Amino acid sequence: MTVMATAEAETQVCTDPVIRNQWHAVADLDEIRRGELRTLLLGEPLRCWIDSGGAARAAAGPDREIEVRTDYGYLWATLGKPSGGVFDVPETREHDRRTLNALTVGIEVSAPRAVENFLDMAHFPYVHAGVLGEEPHTEVAEYRVEERDGELWAFDCLFYQPRAAAASSQAVLAEYVYRVPHPYSAMLYKSSPTDASRMDAIGIFIHPLTATRIRAHLFISVLDDVSADREIRRFQQGVIAQDKPILENQHPKLLPLDPRAETPIRADRSAIVYRRWLSRLGVTYGVIPAAEGVRT
Amino acid sequence: MITLYDWELSANCYKVRLLMSILGLDHHAVPVDFYPGWEHKSAEFAKINPLGHIPVIDDDGYVLRDSHAILVYLAARYDKSGRWYPVDDPEVLGETASWLLFAEGTTNTASAARLYVNLGYDFDIDAVRAGAHRLFGVLDEHLWFREREGLDWVTSSPHPTIADLALFPDVALSEEGGVSREDYPALRRWTDRFRQIDGFTVMPGIFAPSRAAPPG
Hints:
The structure holds two protein chains of two kinds.
Chain A: H1 2-11, H2 17-20, E1 24-28, H3 29-33, E2 37-41, E3 44-50, E4 56-60, E5 64-66, E6 68-71, E7 74-77, E8 98-107, H4 111-118, H5 124-127, E9 144-148, E10 151-161, E11 172-182, E12 185-191, E13 199-208, E14 214-222, H6 229-248, E15 255-256, H7 269-281, E16 287-288, H8 290-295
Parallel strand pairs in A: 15-16
Antiparallel strand pairs in A: 1-7, 2-3, 3-4, 4-5, 6-7, 8-14, 9-10, 10-11, 11-12, 12-13, 13-14
Chain B: E1 2-6, H1 11-22, E2 27-31, H2 43-46, E3 56-59, E4 62-65, H3 67-78, H4 90-119, H5 125-148, H6 162-172, H7 185-195
Parallel strand pairs in B: 1-2
Antiparallel strand pairs in B: 1-3, 3-4
């Protein structure tokens, strides 16, 4: 039962080992430098702070200290035992880039729904009209999706964009590459308006509060020596704030993995592959697993 | 030229942008990195507003803070129709002041709930949501009676005033704070009418009127 699954998910602590064993981006480091953060992670209470020695720490449940990492300006925490570190973002080692957190925003949606929306180009002319798309340029051209080293990648994604980035001065046919290195995080690379040979990187790193509530951290690493931090942030903030009401009105909030649950079109190839990949990884938290979908 | 110290996701800054759009006033926006930069709390911004909040306008050297004060000033100075803030109509002016005060209440409840959900502000979420519902109930009933009188807006004027404008963003964005408008049909009809006003403009989270909707 879809409705039941959503209602129950709100109160459920996560027992899904695949998701428990991930590193989750739980805070912008600047956020906890300003003071202790009390929040949730996968339905459990979570406390994050900077200790007197300057180290970031976190405790889950009543008071169980858990492992953390500090990468790319965020605090990453886990409730389980990850097999390695946080996925690599090589762009952060290129020192001519501007790397920052554009926004941390609460959204009443499951993590997989947010990732799937991030991968979708077809909504650009409607939700981000005049910025990332514009009618009548609504067609999503054929693109390819493949799995590489346990990650999903989508190539050859081309889309007409009136204003592709903060530094844009004219409409372009923007080229996108998508990367899904983590069940609850995704990156996109798009042609840089300031350097045609390189790509801007934008990431959505999700902090799953519960199965149906998240905080989305919007990571950016761009080639832009003109715009101030505030202008780079302003552009990306405007984009995600337009997505928020769309995401919050999706039903069910959990992402159905059964192939028959929602009707896809050709443009949804990346969504289809993403759902299949979550099924294969055995993810059960934040989704309606395929087997359950068949029963409903 | 009017300078606006602005953050795009702020409902209070949107009120000022909305009135300037409706009145056809050009402006120059200075983005303030409200979140996550906390620029409004910086020593530099304290020179512009020691209270550390936005919006603030600078109209050729005349500096004014607080969204509702800015609406009063802009409408009184630049609205040639004299209808958005009718200084010559004491009754409508009194009602406008009353509903502007009411809009401070929606800021402290509906907008607070939105800040709690979106940015993790520390509010008693149940209390602010309950407060928002109490105010929405009052406004919904008021608008229902106005409709019976053949009136479309919160005051007794046949034309919208800055009171409607000051109330609109918190109402239109309420779902973001988990405050549903399902039980307030007159309030929903009023937001639909508001979106049809000439010069209406959107902010992230607020959508343009559907093209299929009839005008007026």
